[in-house]
Structures are given as C-alpha cells and as structure tokens.
Design goal:
There is one protein chain. By secondary structure, the chain is α/β, with parallel strands linked by helices. The chain has a single domain, classed as Aldolase class I (TIM Barrel). Strand 1, helix 1 and strand 2 form a beta-alpha-beta unit. It binds 1,3-dihydroxyacetonephosphate (13P). The site of 1,3-dihydroxyacetonephosphate (13P) has 14 residues, from strand 8.
Length: 260
C-alpha cells in the first residue's frame, strides 16, 4: 500500500524557538495515533533541522530539508551538501520547488543532479513539478508535466517506487488560496502515474507516492485525498499552525489512504 504523506513545507518561516515549540507540541499528539500508512513530515529551514530532528527523535514525525546542493563539497558559499544532511541522519529533501525554479533559475537538469546526490546518501527526494497559470491557460499542462518528468527523471533508476516522492504543485495554486479542484489535481496525478507505468512499469507506478501541493488546508484536504492517485499533500501556509497540521494528519488517517 502506498504511503500517504502530510508534508509541511515551512519555506522561510519559523526560527529556533518556534520550531522547537511546534515539534514539542505535535509529537505527543502524533504518538497517540495509529497512523497506518500516513507519514507526517515537516521541512523547516536549514539552521533548525537538527532541532526538529532531535525533538522528534523516535516519533513518527519525519523531517525534510527544503533544498540541497548538487555539488559534493568545497568552495560553494552558502550551499549545503547531501553529505551534510546525511550526517544529521536526515531522510528526506525537497528538490525543484517552483520557488527555487522561479527565484534561483533551477532547471530540470539541476533537479536531477540534486537527486543523484541525495541517492548517494540514502535521502529520499521529494521532487516538485507543476505548470504555471499561463501554461495551463494555453492548454500546455500535459506537455509541461511530461517534459518535467522526462527532464528530472531521465536516467534515474527506480526499482521499488519508494526511492522518490513526486509532488505535483501547480504554480498558480501555490500561496494563492486557489487550490486545484480535486478533479483537476486527480487528472494530472493520473497522467503522472501513467507516465511512471510506461517508463518504469507497474510496481514503481503503484508504489510511488504522488503528493498534491497548492493552497491545501484542513477544509479542502479530505476532498483532495479522495482522488485515487493523490497520496497526500505538500502543504505550505496551513502547515505552520500546529492545530491545522494535526488536523490534516487526522484527516489523512481517517481517509485510510486505501489506495493501490
Ligand atoms: P501553500 O500551501 O501555501 O499554497 O504552498 C504550497 C507549497 O508550495 C508547498 O510546497
């Protein structure tokens, strides 16, 4: 059965104390639940990863970085390597978020290079793809998604399907309050799943979790999770409040995630 992720991407929010308080508050609540196949996850900023890892140690709450360098080590001021992340025993890392693509000119080739570095250190990449509003309006959603899949995953070996997580995040839905309808999201998720089937076969396609991201909140999550190919969410704004995050974990658990 596929894993269902409730993944909070905190972006450039929360300092040391806020990170500590959040994790200290949510961990006991998460520990009380039978999560089944649901994995709660947060992605704080780099300086606070260790704090989040320490405070969530031995709980089900997982911690991800928001980015990683595609270099191994050396004179790259400001960069953080996969090896550094692995030295904290971190297990997940977001790559290719549309904000990295937009503000830091990240290309699919760079996303792929980052993934390869993460693989060297057994860190699971959460690979973000998604079309802009202009691309959707021009009817190019399918073409854009397929191009991104081809570009990011070209030559990437997947056997089990659990080596990576894909997050479909339509750029027009991020931080706008305008989420994709469950139908719009499911349509693209199905496209992604079919692409996986054609390129990697049934096992990978069935096991790989595809998250939706873009203006998810407790009020719209249940409906989105009803999409057959929607295996959880990558959530920005609504993941910052403990009660909303916990509420979304509960919704995911209640949905049972009985997919595949
Ligand atoms: P919002 O949930 O704030 O729209 O952000 C989505 C996102 O970018 C998660 O990576």
């Amino acid at each position: 059965m596929r894993k269902l992720y409730i993944a909070g991407n905190w972006k450039m929010n929360k300092g040391l104390m806020e990170t500590r308080v959040f994790v200290q508050r949510v961990v006991p609540e998460i520990n009380k639940q039978d999560l089944g196949n649901v994995i709660p996850l947060i992605a704080p900023a780099y300086p606070f990863l260790e704090e989040a890892l320490r405070e969530s140690f031995s709980s089900a709450l997982q911690v991800a970085a928001q980015d990683v360098s595609y270099h191994s080590e050396g004179a790259y001021t400001g960069e953080v390597s996969a090896q550094m992340l692995a030295s904290m025993e971190l297990k997940y890392c977001i790559v290719g978020h549309s904000e990295r693509r937009q503000y830091h000119n990240e290309t699919d080739a760079m996303v792929k290079a980052r993934m390869l570095k993460l693989f060297e250190h057994n860190i699971t990449p959460i690979v973000c793809i998604g079309e802009t509003l202009a691309q959707r309006e021009e009817g190019k959603t399918e073409e854009v998604i397929i191009n991104q899949l081809n570009g990011c995953l070209e030559g990437i070996k997947l056997i089990k399907g659990t080596e990576i997580i894909i997050a479909y995040e339509p750029v027009w839905a991020i931080g706008t309050g305008e989420n994709a309808t469950p139908w719009q999201a499911q349509e693209v998720h199905k496209l992604i799943r079919n692409w996986l089937k054609n390129n990697y076969g049934e096992t990978v396609a069935n096991e790989l979790s595809i998250l939706y991201g873009g203006s998810i909140k407790p009020a719209n999550l249940k409906e989105l999770l009803e999409g057959e190919d929607i295996d959880g969410g990558l959530i920005g704004g609504a993941s910052l409040k403990e009660e909303d995050f916990l509420e979304m974990v509960k919704i995911a658990v209640a949905s049972k995630g009985e997919k595949c």
